[in-house]
Write a structure and sequence with these properties.
2 strands; mainly alpha; single chain
């Protein structure tokens, strides 16, 4: 443990030390620009013969609510915040978080290529005129309605929740409730803002659970064995 409880003293980092035990985890961050390139490709350059609309009866029962823009945008802060927190304080949790993100996001990009989807749920006119609806309108203008199933927003929210539950300093009941409630609000925001169909949310769940089993379950088994050996 380093100064102020930091897991690693990043002041000692040099590019020549990237393969050292203390810093090799930083290579996992290379996934983000690679993912950005592939996401840009499927969003802007890839032109499939058709997109499959995602829609179910429950979508028509969910009203548009601009207040959900707050948790929807909070998703970006949650991802960045968990990356920064685990980088500073819990490298093992950082690695597992990144493994979860790499697995789920990579599978999602492949699904987008094989099964291109879209949604046609956005309101033609907002029921209210206020700052939040204006912000949603601006968001609609540059965010396409394609490549929606499964929802990356949902996968990222669940990834942050699992990472929060996994981080050593955050393994307390209150924090578990906070991370779970935040994940639920973010998932709800995707359908109340008409960014996703309920189908997109449900499709993300099994992928997240499979990734959780791959990235986190082996660790839980090792912890149980260690506790039994101590007892």
């Amino acid at each position: 443990m380093h100064r102020r409880g930091f897991a690693v003293d990043y002041r000692q980092f040099r590019w020549s030390k990237l393969n050292d035990e203390s810093f090799r985890h930083l290579k996992l961050l290379l996934f983000w620009p690679i993912y950005g390139i592939f996401f840009y490709f499927v969003e802007k350059l890839y032109m499939p013969a058709r997109y499959y609309p995602m829609h179910c009866a429950l979508d028509d029962l969910i009203p548009f609510c601009e207040l959900f823009l707050i948790p929807y945008l909070a998703w970006f802060l949650c991802i960045a915040g968990m990356l920064l927190y685990t980088l500073l304080y819990d490298i093992r949790a950082f690695r597992r978080f990144m493994h979860f993100i790499i697995l789920t996001y990579s599978v999602t990009i492949v699904i987008y290529l094989i099964f291109p989807t879209c949604q046609q749920l956005r309101p033609a006119a907002f029921p209210r005129d206020n700052l939040l609806t204006q912000m949603v309108g601006n968001f609609y203008s540059f965010d396409t309605n394609t490549n929606v199933c499964p929802s990356i927003h949902v996968l990222g929210a669940l990834g942050v929740m699992f990472a929060g539950w996994d981080a050593r300093r955050l393994r307390k009941p209150l924090w578990r409730v906070v991370f779970a409630a935040t994940a639920v609000l973010i998932c709800l925001s995707t359908v109340f803002l008409k960014q996703h169909s309920v189908i997109d949310v449900l499709a993300a769940m099994p992928l997240a659970l499979i990734a959780y089993a791959v990235c986190y379950r082996p660790l839980r088994h090792r912890r149980r064995r260690a506790r039994r050996e101590i007892a």
